[in-house]
Amino acid sequence: MGSLSLTRQEWSDLWRALQLYASPVFLRANYLLISVGFFLFTSLMDLRRLHRLLTHETFEQALSHANVVSLILTSMFIQNCLQLHATRQIGAAQAPAIPGLALAEARAVCIVDVLSVLLLSTALSFAPIPFHDALFFVLFNSIPTVLQWYVPPQGQSQKLRFLISLAGGILILGQFGLLLLSNASLWLLTRPPILTIPADVCLLLVMIVSILSLPNRLHGAPATPHALDASASLKDALPEFPYGKAKTRARKPITFYQLRQMLLAPTSPLTLKTDILLSCLFIPVLMSISAMGMSLFTHKSFAACWKPLVFSAGAMIAVSDNWLTQRQHWPLLLITGRFGDRLSFVRSVFSAKLSRLSVTIPLRVLSLIIPYALITSFALRDTLVFSLEFMGLALGFALCGALPFLVSGNPWKGVVYAFNFIPIFLLQTCNPFITGTRIAGMIAGLSIALGCVAYVLAPRSLSKADWPYETE
Question: Interior CA angle at 114 toward 412 and 166, to 5°?
Answer without folding.
Answer: 65
